[in-house]
Amino acid sequence: MKISIITVVLNNKRHVEDCIHSVLNQSYKHVEYIVVDGGSTDGTVDIIKKFEAYLSTWISEPDRGIYDAMNKGIKMASGEVIGILNSDDFYFDNAVLENVSMAMSDINRDACYADLVYVDTSNVNKIARYWRSRPFEPGLFKRGWAPAHPTFFVRKKIYDQYGIFDLNYKLAADFEIMARFLEYYRICAVYIPKIFVKMRVGGATNKSVLNIVKQNFEIFEACGRNNIDISFLSFLMNKFITRLHQFYFKSAV
Fold first, then answer.
1. Facing residues of 190 across strands?
2. 32 three-class SS
């Protein structure tokens, strides 16, 4: 089984090398690695070129944002299963793709996902939050739940059948596509109770309170579009409780 990994990046020379190393060091070797750069000007492209011989393909050109870059990668991918790893993130250990391969060896499974930990930007061994997931059940999305997107691996045929990222969403297209696949189309997904990804704190959504507010309104709209009956107040309360649990469970790592 070929697994396609897509890394999207823009002006992140500080961290992109860690991300690339974490993919290239995977023990599972039947991997297609695609890097989509948005036209970086800070030296990121020079770092990508260092690894050019080990990449399946890469491009550097302007795009319409992170989700447009992800869509480009999906269209370029030829693997049976696709995972997306952003340039601030890296795999927890070298066995992540082995675990994905084992889970997806069941041809009846359309997707798999796992846990994620947020780590300090300057000290990646310091855990800030532990995003512990759970097996999917209908109705979870309206209660503020979603899988951690960097741990979400999907068969390419699902993207072909049900669509790619909706660029109308600037901050919550990852939530929308997972809600579309899991809640609306009810694809078969399995939860793997392992940590797959370390994510540095300080992503695009969390850079400002305004972005957090905008993201939540986008999520509310995405739920409506996917026929998820949601109470906005209840959603926010459940999401807040979920975040508290993530800070509490960080000691479990």
1. 112
2. strand
Separation of alpha carbons 143 and 3, rounded Å: 31
By CB neighbour count within 10 A (0-12 exposed, 13-18 middle, 19+ buried), where does 123 fall?
exposed
Phi–psi pair at 6, nearest 5 degrees? -115, 125
CATH T-level topology, domain 3-252 = Spore Coat Polysaccharide Biosynthesis Protein SpsA; Chain A (3.90.550)
> What is the rounded distance in angstroms from the CA atom of residue 174 to the CA atom of residue 103?
22
For residue 237, give the DSSP letter.
H
User: What pLDDT tens digit does each residue of the chain (253 aa) get?
Assistant: 999 999 999 999 999 999 999 999 999 999 999 999 999 999 999 999 999 999 999 999 999 999 999 999 999 999 999 999 999 999 999 999 999 999 999 999 999 999 999 999 989 999 999 999 999 999 999 887 899 999 999 999 999 999 999 999 999 999 999 999 999 999 999 999 999 999 998 755 455 678 888 887 888 888 888 888 876 566 666 555 565 555 555 555 5
What is the per-residue DSSP string for 121-179?
A: SS-TTSEEEEE------TTSGGGT----GGG-EEEHHHHHHH----TT-SS-HHHHHHH
- Amino acid at position 48, single letter: I
Which structure tokens are listed for 7?
Answer: 């890394």
SS3 111: strand
Strands (E), 10-120: 31-37, 57-60, 81-84, 89-91, 111-119
Predicted model pTM: 0.91
- Tell me how far apart the alpha carbons of residues 131 and 147 are, in angstroms, rounded to a whole number: 9
